[in-house]
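DM from R.C. (forwarded with permission)

"hey, sorry to bug you on a friday — could you get me a structure for this? deadline for the figure draft is monday and I only need the backbone to look sensible"
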Amino acid sequence: MDDKTETACRICGYDDGEAVFDEYGVPKYVICPCCYNESGIGDDNVSQVRELRGYWVASGAQWHDPKFRSADWDLLTQLANIPPEWR
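My reply, with the result:
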């Protein structure tokens, strides 16, 4: 069986190394400190993910909890963390 663990938010690409989907692909219902999406809620198909991402970016890509934002944060670098199947 393939390990389906994901650590990056499917919406914004925030990745702190903690699993948001376990090895079976089951969501852990973690709230992203960047885009505020909860894994397993509205991110189970590509069209939903793209819609939520588009809304977040169009709204200025604001951080929900700015204390987690690094000083050298770059939106495009973070978006590159999104697993290819969710881009």
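R.C.: lifesaver. The chain has one domain: 1-74.
me: no worries. The two ends are 24 Å apart (CA to CA).
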